Amino acid sequence: MAVSVSPLRSFARAVSMQMKNHRRPPGHTGQRQSGAVWRITPAHAKTTAFLTALSYLGYEAHKKVTCAAVVFARDKAEEVVEQADYLYSCGETEKLYQLLLQYKESDDAEFLWRLARASRDLALLANIAADQKKRLTYEAFDYAKKALEKNEACFAAHKWYAICLSDVGDYEGIKVKIGNSYIIKDHLQRAIDLNPKDATSIHILGYWCFAFAELPWYQRKVAAVIFASPPTATYEEALAYFLKAEEVDPNFYSKNLLMLGKTYMMLKDQEKAVLWLNKARDYPAITEEDKQVHTEALNLLKKLSG
């Protein structure tokens, strides 16, 4: 790591200032020369060499300490991220949120987008009051926005910015929500461009298409009034994204299985709808969302069998 002002540079600057101020350096016995430069005697040369050696040793010691501190900080950051990902995989939402909340002032996008995700997951818990849910939703958006500001090349920052922006729209009315839809789609596409193997981003873009394919007529009317070219999509487009997500990472997410079932229902393909809804029903219910998916899949299967 670069040092802003090294000890060697400081030492050279100090010697330079002594000459500029016409001061006789310690240990010097020569006559004053033209240009106000003092003659360097053998004794002074030895002193200078000794001081330079000490300065260099100090610089090397400082460099080693600095490097050690950087390595420790990096290792600590990686340790926290590993711990956070483990808690996420276990569905320990509240513990995860408390862990990452300690790093809310961090400049590291890897902490911030995870904190955005944890805040959002906490807002989705059944025992969260309405006012707290709203606060957490806006909090999640702020963390996602900050993550994106810190690292525009972070695909996860784009993904969670898109998700959290959509959530915020639920509190700000249909006009704002539809207006944000273009921004949401752009960030999802950017996330996929940065990481084509991220099945979640592909799934969410499929969900975006599904949402606009099933947009109620009155909301379409609002969109047509507000926008010259309101966002549109088809169930076929949604299906293509959901299938692509499953191809990239099979069985990665209960909601993708559910959405495949629902999309096939909208396309009147009952056989395939039942196939995917059964998979959604049987998916291990770890998170609160998994439990909601399980319930919805059961209800839809009953509807199809009835």
UniProtKB/TrEMBL annotation:
InterPro entries: RMD1-3_a_helical_rpt, TPR-like_helical_dom_sf. One of its GO terms (cellular component) is spindle microtubule. It is found in: Cytoplasm, Cytoskeleton. Keywords: Cytoplasm, Cytoskeleton, Repeat, TPR repeat. It comes from the Eukaryota. GO terms for molecular function: microtubule binding. Pfam families: RMD1-3 (PF21033). Belongs to the RMDN family. This is Regulator of microtubule dynamics protein 1. The gene is RMDN1.
